[in-house]
Amino acid sequence: MRILMTSTSYPESPDDWRGRFIANLVESLARREELELTLWAPPGQIPPNVTHVAIHADAQWLRHLAQSGGIAHTLRQRGTGAVGTVTSLLFRLCRTYRRNRADVFHINWLQNALPLWGTQTPALISVLGTDLALLELPGMVAALRQVMRQRRTILAPNATWMTPELERQFGDVAEIRPIFFGVDGPWFGVVRRPPTDGTKHWLCITRLTKNKIGDLFAWGEGLFGETRRLHLFGPMQEQVDIPAWVDYHGPTYPAQLLGDWFPQASGLITLSCHDEGRPQVMLEAMAAGLPILASELPAHRDMLRHEETGWLAASAADVRRGLDWLEEPERNARIGKAAQDWVRESIGTWDECAGLYAQAYRNLLEHI
Fold it and tell me: Structural domain of residue 204, as residue ranges?
């Protein structure tokens, strides 16, 4: 099967945080012998049996877009001032879909499906949490429905909580089939070694925007200090004032987390109020046996069972109680193990994820 995948995100190198899950997906699909995979994405370390089809001008444009924070960040920051960037993206995708022969288009993010208009190639469209916000734009649902009517389509959200809304909007013109992104072996292999001095180290790994930080700084005030440290990792995508009691380390990458930070951490904390789908960093932390303290978002409720695999917080008092509760050593180990077991049993590996996508491709091609 000839598969053309499009994505506006891809890591340039192993220590690049951008688009890590796309690289993991591409690598797992590349291991399947029945697939001939081509990729339109920013340049990076692409597997040798995958053909990178972005022409030079597109590759450089995509690199610049990724370095500026990506299309979603550009839209949030510039609003109507991003019309030129959006138009350029849609034009480049339209040209790509018409220049490259494929049995199935695998499209990441709903907006990248709009340029399919006028073609008939079956499409699998991965849907993330930010895509649901896109559907609120005037005319967006109608345009996407028309695109889907022209072909066989599978919408593949990466979390089940998105399914009801997608069924409501598109269930009559597309199949809604959740496919979860995987987690691979090294995360499950982390050996936790708490610091001998008793210091508790909590990690927050996120892009730094107002919504991604959420209530972390307001609710965390007074809870962190010398014996309980908050370590913040991620790129500064909006100007955010970081309190003096936060240890900010800048962007990070998997090898650093695996080797330096996850082994000594007490847990991961996120109080995001962003449109999350199923945050990959949370899955990886859970696979490593780290308890998670998270805000009460649909995406977080979909992943965590309160007081079983983590702690859900809706107030500053909840955060205080959650930190104290999760730091008790025996409970910390038990909750972390339960979280790890859930990921292993309910999520699976990237190779298993690739198998589900391959089956979806086959289903799209039946009776054509």
Answer: 185-346
Q: Can you say whether the dihedral through the CA atoms of 166, 167, 168, 170 is positive or negative?
A: positive
Residue 39 near residue 5, CB atoms below 8 Å? yes
Q: Same structural domain for residues 82 and 148? A: yes
What pLDDT shows up at residue 80?
56
Do 268 and 247 lie in one domain? The reply is: yes
Q: How far apart are CA 283 and CA 181, in angstroms?
A: 9
Residues 108 and 192 occupy one common structural domain: no
- The Cα–Cα gap between 271 and 358 comes to 35
Here the CATH number for the domain that contains residue 283 is 3.40.50.2000
Do 41 and 79 lie in a common domain? Answer: yes
Q: How far apart are CA 235 and CA 162, in angstroms?
A: 27
- 201-212 burial string, b = 16+ CB within 10 Å, else e? bbbbbbbbbeeb
pLDDT of residue 75: 63
Which pLDDT belongs to residue 130? 78
Give the three-class secondary structure for 337: helix
Taking residues 72-88, report their average pLDDT.
70
Helix (H, G, I), strand (E, B) or coil at 121: coil
Tens of pLDDT, residue by residue over 188-235, are 999 999 999 999 999 999 989 999 999 999 999 999 999 999 999 999
Q: Are residues 98 and 172 in the same domain?
A: yes
- Alpha carbons 124 and 155: distance in angstroms, whole number: 6
The rounded distance, in Å, linking the Cα atoms of 123 and 174 is 10
Please tell me the pTM assigned to this model: 0.88
Residues 138 and 245 in one domain: no
Phi-psi region at 39: left, alpha or beta (left = phi > 0; alpha = psi -120 to 50): beta
Per the DSSP assignment, residues forming a β-bridge with 247 are: 231
* 293 CB neighbour count, 10 Å cutoff: 25
Residue 17 is predicted with a pLDDT of 81
Total of domains in the chain? 2
For Cα atoms 174, 180, 185, give the angle at the middle one, nearest 5 degrees: 155
How far is it, in rounded angstroms, from Cα 293 to Cα 269? 5
Decide if 185 contacts 352 (C-beta within 8 A): no
